[in-house]
Structures are given as C-alpha cells and as structure tokens.
Amino acid sequence: MGQSKLSRIDVFVTVITLIIISFMMTSFLGCVVVYSPKLKCYNNLKGVGTALAAYAYYNNDEFPVAGGDGPWSQKLGWDYDDPKASFDPGDKYEHAPRTLTASWYILTREMDLDPSALVCPAVIGATRFNGDGSSTELIDMWDFGDTPYEHVSYSIQNQYGKYPAHKTSPADNAIAADMSPWFDANGDILPPATGTDSPQLIDPSDLDTWQLGNSRNHNGKGQNVLFNDMHVSFEKTPTVGVDQDNIYTYWTNPDNPTPADKQQGQNPTARDKANDSQAPEDSFLAI
Description:
alpha+beta, 5-stranded antiparallel β-sheet, 3 helices, 5 strands, transmembrane helix, Type II secretion system protein
C-alpha cells in the first residue's frame, strides 16, 4: 500500500490553521489575565455583602460599627490586638478614635469573613492581613493591624456619621465599593488634582471628566459597587447612588440639592463631622 503525501497546499493550510489557533488562545488567555482581577474583586464584594446581610440578621438590621462613640480617625485609638479593650460607658476606650477599617474588621471577628475578601487583587502592594506578627488570635483583634490601609482595598459608608448604612436604608444606596479616589494607600486624604490627573470633582455637564472621580483600583475605568440590596455591579462612573448620587462625595446642599449637587458633591477634606453624608440617600464611601 502506498504512503500518502501532503501537498504544499496541505502543509500551508495546516500551518496557517495552527497560527490562527495559537493567536486565538493567546488572545483568550490575555483576556483572562486582564479581567480576572476585576472579577475576583466583584466576588470579594459579593462575599462582603453576604457577611453584612448575615450580621444585620443577628443585629436588628444594623451593620457593623466599631465600639464606643469616638470620632472617625485615621488611626485606631487603642491597640488593635488588645483582646481586653472595652468600650462600655465609663470604660477607658468609650470615646477613643475609631478607624472605618475597624468597622470592616467586625465582619472578621464575628462573621468569620476571611481578611482576603477585603483585598482587591488589582491593587499593587495590598496584602491579606495575617495578624502582623501578633500572638493574639484574629477573632480577638479590632483592626487590620497598625497599618490597616495595606490590607483594605474598599471604602465603606461612613459608619460614624449622621447617616450610617443599615439594612433598612434605601435598597439602591451604595454601601461599599472599590477604594475612594480621595484616599491614598496610607489612608491620607488627597486634594483635588489638576489637568487629567485623578482625583477630581466631576463636571456633571462634561462626561469626559467623570472617570476622574472613579476609584483608582482599576486604573480609573470604574469600580465594583455593593448596593444595599446586596447586589454588586461594575460601574463606569461614580454617579450610581440614589438619583445619580456621587458615592465618593457628599452633597453640598442638604436642604434642596440639585442634580448637579448630587452628581458632583464635595470631596472629603478631613475626618470630622463636617465631612459627612447629608441625607439617608447620600452615600459617602470613605476609609
């Protein structure tokens, strides 16, 4: 029986086919690399939402708020790994400063949320909190170490203000999202930038400026947002709260806000009572 031989045309077609398949596989794998951090981030916030809903179920529809009644602060007012810290009336830490990350940490203490759920994989340098060398068990701690901003990539509604998030808040309120562009990796508050740099207050009449108000977690392309009905979606602008409220700023006119007031708002300038939501529908996600 004679052996079959491939013609030059057969060889040419085979080579071209293999090149096309190789190109398609490379493109597919490239898409996986590009989009997997965003998808992992999305799933992180879904897990956070599940933990928040469970916490609210056992706590009269309330979301976590760190102990005591101290002010919102960049640094925790007690040792993060002091298992004996107490915040009852008259106790030493009743009025101690509180970080917003300490409110996040309650989900680890009480709902067994793994700290990795608060790390967006797109953020360079962010790492899972593992105790930072302390001998105290994670479930007995109060915050993500002395440098919690290295371990938390997401902003949360200001839980120490006039309008903290809770389960009975409007369903389409944004309650958490990728990190606010107004805070850097150390938790410092940033001033408005200029030119094409972020962060900036958006111009509601100029769509080209809207990305300048986005989180930097995903290179300014948008942010994963957790809403109070516990759904998560990737939004390309920050104006996704109630009535297109900007989720990273607070209203400038609390009594009769215009659409522009809600969409632009005021950027945070300090951690104090003046920098706060102005109504239950005014999301103000910070850290």
